Amino acid sequence: QICLSLVKLLFYLAHSPLGSIVLLDFQPRQFVMVDGNLKVTDMDDASTEELSCKEDDDCTLDFPTKSFPLKCSMVGKCEGMNEKKNLFNAYRYFFTYLLPHSAPPALRPLLANILNATGDLRYGVNETLRAFEKVLHLYKSGLYLQKRPLVLKDYISLKGFRMVEGEDYKCWPSYSHLGCLLSVHSAEEAAAICNSQLQCQSFIITQHTTWTGRPLASFRSSWTDLIPDTNAVVYIKRSASSEKRL
């Protein structure tokens, strides 16, 4: 969410009515999340000036660990320098820390490609935004789950009950520090996640959703602490339920 929101902001800065805007003091402390959108808190160090040049050698974009040769345009300006400077700063201050974590395994190669492409400045901000929107579409639609074996059949569904809330085993990246609470596309994906965790014996799809609209699923190491709830369904591993009669 943070990275996508940042790229949308950089897209606007690259195509603003004032021209391409560069953030000269690009630091995480200069941004804040407001209603799920990343915003710049200080525009005092923003500039629309593109570096003047006479030849391509005048247009080297330097960072502490990398340098990038750019082109000198016909009008004597370093082509795309403001956009590329913003994008590489997004890569080194945000993408490298946030993109490698938390995504479903099927989407990690796509995020790794974004990471590598922005780190080498092979992508401009337009291509980066398109790549993020593709990942978001796959994530929200559940298309990344295609060609996976169906495992929900290995679970018994118990309607009209939910599990008592309380501390249980932890998992990464959980939305709760008390247990294992993850976003899922469906009960089928939740069943696959439960199968991948040795402690998991049951799960419930909660009424809570993430910013993408995906529901949160609570995974538990037991299924015995049940209370009535007409709107809930508990999914229990058949292997677990065979040990004790429902």
TrEMBL record:
Keywords: Kinase, Signal, Transferase
Matches recorded under Pfam families: PIP49_C
Protein name: PKDCC kinase
Signal peptide coordinates: 1-19
GO molecular function, one term: non-membrane spanning protein tyrosine kinase activity
Alphabetized InterPro entries for the sequence: FAM69_kinase_dom, PKDCC
Gene Ontology cellular component terms for the protein in this record: extracellular region
GO process annotations (BP): skeletal system development
Residue ranges annotated for the FAM69 protein-kinase domain, each copy included: 2-116
Organism: Anthoscopus minutus
